[in-house]
């Protein structure tokens, strides 16, 4: 082989070696680059992080807490259902893959705002319940008086019947005396005549001339303030909730104050009543918080939101009379630093009879009661308590509870009440 041929062989070998080395290096680089960069086509085929299921529209109500500035209460305003949240941003592809089973958070179903029944005519609707428990009184009186033989014994029976229905001694004596006079003049009556007399006598005792309106409209550019008091278990919180519904049905703007801080559940209970009809509740989240401070904040919140009326629920679980006086006195004084109190409603359980009467007297010494709410009249034959308590306190029964349903609170109507007793 000549020198030129040898040179060609060497050049060919070197060229081939250089090409092989280049191919090796390119191969290495490509192998690593596949892990750091993706080509568009490769990215399109790569497994995607599962898209998060967008939460459903927030259709349940939330309670936005607005600090009323008073330091204790927050006003829990039920918000109207909010707009759906904005669309999710594009998935960040460099993010680590999401878990394969994305968590789907189900929003609770929307509790639509309820439309409470109008207060007008409620007593007529509920009359049957009153009749069911109280017609015994009417029937007994009718059979005694129209029985034909009105001797002393018969009159004693009339008296006992009235007393058993909790009318009280004074009212009973007045009714019996008046009936005796009528018999003297008209002779022994027939049943229709007796019914007419009894209607007149009972109505007179129930006193239809008393003003039974509830202060629930703005006065001098501020909300009316209603304080609700009574022993625990009488139905106070329930009554505040039901009353809120009565007022909402009358298109009133209502604010609730949960000043029953003794029992944490009482504030929750009240808030639930409010939420159902879109009414805000001022409350403290702390059990045992100062009830006067919560009441103050509720009235302040009502003024700031230009409400028509603020209903303040209080605790009734008090150990003794002076304790009661102190607590209610303080609530009253603290509220009055910013607004007069327009109404103090005393809630009494009609089934407790004389015990209820004693409670009424104690409460009326602590605060100026302006109206009585008699609850559970559906469960007692002692409807006469209406008469007894009005006489004892000199204030009218303004509302009656006739069941556990949300709209089973009715403005007290004397004529409908007497009708129900005698039917
Ligand atoms: N049958 C009947 N039950 C009623 C009536 N009003 C209230 N209740 C029931 O009485 C019970 C007590 O009611 P609450 O409102 O919790 O009583 P409260 O006075 O606020 O009691 P505390 O919060 O413990 O002070 C509940 O089961 C009510 O449903 C009524 O008019 N008729």
TrEMBL record:
It is an enzyme of class 3 (hydrolase). The chain crosses the membrane at residues 6-29. Its EC number is 3.6.5.4. One of its GO terms (biological process) is cell division. Residues 396-409 form the SRP54-type proteins GTP-binding domain. One of its GO terms (molecular function) is GTPase activity. It is found in: Cell membrane; Cytoplasm. It catalyses: GTP + H2O = GDP + phosphate + H(+). Residues 90-107 have a biased composition (Low complexity). It comes from the Bacteria. It holds the Pfam family SRP54_N. GTP binds at residues 230-237, 313-317, 375-378. Keywords: Cell cycle, Cell division, Cell membrane, Cytoplasm, GTP-binding, Hydrolase, Membrane, Nucleotide-binding, Receptor, Transmembrane, Transmembrane helix. Its main location: membrane. It is a peripheral membrane protein. Residues 37-121 are annotated as: Disordered. GO terms for cellular component: cytoplasm; plasma membrane. Part of the signal recognition particle protein translocation system, which is composed of SRP and FtsY. Belongs to the GTP-binding SRP family. FtsY subfamily. Involved in targeting and insertion of nascent membrane proteins into the cytoplasmic membrane. Acts as a receptor for the complex formed by the signal recognition particle (SRP) and the ribosome-nascent chain (RNC). PANTHER family: SIGNAL RECOGNITION PARTICLE RECEPTOR SUBUNIT ALPHA. This is Signal recognition particle receptor FtsY. It comes from Luteipulveratus halotolerans.
């Amino acid at each position: 082989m000549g020198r030129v041929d040898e040179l060609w062989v060497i050049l060919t070998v070197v060229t081939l070696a250089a090409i092989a080395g280049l191919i090796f290096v390119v191969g290495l680089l490509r192998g690593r680059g596949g892990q750091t960069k993706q080509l568009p086509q490769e990215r399109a085929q790569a497994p995607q992080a599962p898209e998060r299921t967008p939460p459903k529209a927030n259709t349940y109500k939330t309670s936005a807490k607005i600090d009323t500035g008073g330091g204790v209460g927050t006003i829990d305003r039920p918000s109207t259902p909010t707009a759906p949240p904005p669309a999710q941003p594009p998935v960040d592809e460099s993010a680590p893959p999401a878990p394969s089973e994305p968590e789907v958070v189900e929003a609770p179903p929307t509790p639509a705002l309820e439309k409470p029944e109008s207060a007008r005519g409620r007593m007529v609707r509920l009359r049957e319940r009153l009749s069911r428990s109280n017609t015994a009184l009417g029937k007994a009186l009718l059979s005694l008086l129209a029985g034909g033989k009105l001797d002393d014994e018969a009159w004693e029976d009339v008296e006992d019947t009235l007393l058993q229905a909790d009318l009280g001694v004074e009212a009973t004596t007045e009714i019996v005396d008046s009936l005796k006079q009528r018999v003297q003049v008209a002779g022994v009556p027939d049943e229709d005549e007796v019914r007419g007399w009894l209607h007149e006598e009972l109505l007179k005792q129930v006193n239809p001339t008393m003003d039974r309106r509830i202060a629930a409209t703005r006065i001098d550019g501020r909300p009316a303030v209603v304080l609700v008091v009574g022993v625990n278990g009488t139905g106070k919180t329930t009554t505040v909730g039901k009353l809120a519904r009565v007022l909402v049905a009358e298109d009133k703007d209502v604010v609730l104050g949960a000043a029953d801080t003794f029992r944490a559940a009482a504030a929750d209970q009240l808030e639930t009543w409010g939420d159902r009809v879109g009414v805000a509740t001022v409350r403290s989240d702390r059990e045992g918080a100062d009830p006067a401070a919560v009441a103050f904040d509720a009235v302040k919140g009502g003024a700031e939101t230009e409400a028509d009326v603020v209903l303040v629920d209080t605790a009734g679980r008090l150990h003794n009379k002076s304790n009661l006086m102190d607590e209610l006195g303080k609530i009253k004084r603290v509220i009055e630093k910013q607004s007069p109190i327009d109404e103090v409603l005393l809630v009494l359980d009609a089934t407790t009879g004389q015990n209820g009467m004693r409670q009424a007297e104690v409460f009326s010494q602590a605060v100026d009661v302006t109206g009585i709410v008699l609850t559970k009249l559906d469960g007692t034959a002692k409807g006469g308590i209406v008469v007894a308590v009005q006489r004892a306190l000199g204030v009218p029964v303004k509302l009656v509870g006739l069941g556990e349903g949300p709209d089973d609170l009715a403005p007290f109507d004397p004529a409908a009440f007497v009708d129900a007793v005698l039917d």
